[in-house]
From TrEMBL, chains A, B:
InterPro entries: Homeodomain-like_sf, HTH_TetR, Tet_transcr_reg_TetR-rel_C_sf, TetR_C. GO terms for molecular function: DNA binding. Residues 3-63 form the HTH tetR-type domain. It comes from Cellulomonas flavigena (strain ATCC 482 / DSM 20109 / BCRC 11376 / JCM 18109 / NBRC 3775 / NCIMB 8073 / NRS 134). Keywords: DNA-binding, Transcription, Transcription regulation. It comes from the Bacteria. Signal peptide: none annotated. Residues 26-45 bind DNA. This is Transcriptional regulator, TetR family.
Length: 197, 197
């Protein structure tokens, strides 16, 4: 029951933040939309920042789900990376249908908005982006070991490039309100990870 | 005199937005920091949105200044692109010194935050990003004409990749509060624009 309430608060906050921004969403809005009273919300989240961190963690959990599904598959490394990019684009289309507008990268948005705030937020965002980069770097290393990608590249640098490109395209898709913008990602990511000469 | 006041309001609003987010900055904060009264601010900007658009236009003007300086130089096209990326990284370092924290891409931040809002804002942001992409695409076309970049690539798609990468690295630099993250951009952009086979 308590878990259900906490879950409903996080899910509601997440939807409201995606439909607008973190700053736009007040604790009162979350209470109203989730149908809980303020005491109940503050029981689980003593501050708006605590709720913001829970939304960030939830977004990372969902992104990790996409990464797990794509990266744990039995397929050549670059195909696994393609599968992640396809799943990411498909998530953006689903969110657009649900929210009525293209929300942009769920993690990139929070990074752009919340890094400006409390040091705790920025540190947690940096951690999440590093964890995302590490997942991609491990696929890049697999691809290098198979001879599919130039082994002279630093895998972490290349992975940061991939994560940056995904976030940048999230911004472009949001500005154009067009999730199909993300379809350009796959060939560009391949170009960041060229085969050995 | 009126121009001075308008200018002071826009510059102040811009600094406040960069140090936090658009949503965090109220008209009252701008009045206080700029030393103007509310009537004066509303004389120039009838709404916060109008002021937000002026901040966006100012950021684009400054970015266009960087692009003009780098792109109008007498140098091979890819060197001009490098010069822009160097100037962009240097701007980020200067802003970090001025604001005490790495602000991220001045245009990318507004795109991530404001596209979620009024359609006027989103449309203007999309226009600005298209104008930025067009500038880069023209350099890519010059590089292709000289035989420096594979002519089979669509120059506009490649330029969108470059702009996305710059914005994504803006987010990473902000999350890490480290403007030197942008130094990785030049080699990655080159990899997005490979020489013909």
């Amino acid at each position: 029951m308590a878990r259900d309430t906490r879950e409903r608060i996080v899910t509601t906050a997440r939807d409201l933040v995606h439909a607008a921004t973190y700053a736009d969403v007040g604790v009162d809005d979350v209470c109203r939309a989730a149908g809980v009273n303020k005491g109940s919300l503050y029981h689980f989240f003593p501050s708006k920042q605590a709720l913001g961190l829970a939304v960030l963690d939830r977004n990372w959990e969902l992104m990790r789900g996409l990464l797990d599904e794509a990266f744990d598959a039995e397929a050549p490394p670059l195909d696994r990376l393609d599968a992640f990019l396809t799943a990411y684009a498909s998530m953006m289309r689903t969110m657009r249908e649900h929210l009525g507008a293209t929300p942009g990268c769920p993690l990139g948005n929070l990074a752009a908005e919340l890094s400006a705030h409390e040091p705790d937020m920025r540190a947690r965002i940096a951690e999440v982006l590093t964890a995302w980069t590490d997942r991609v770097a491990s696929v890049v290393r697999d691809a290098q070991a198979r001879g599919d990608v130039d082994p002279s590249f630093d895998a972490t640098e290349a992975a940061r490039g991939v994560v940056a490109l995904v976030q940048g395209y999230g911004v472009l898709a949001k500005a154009d309100d067009d999730p199909t913008a993300l379809d350009a990602l796959r060939p560009l990511v391949r170009r960041l990870l060229p085969a050995p000469h």
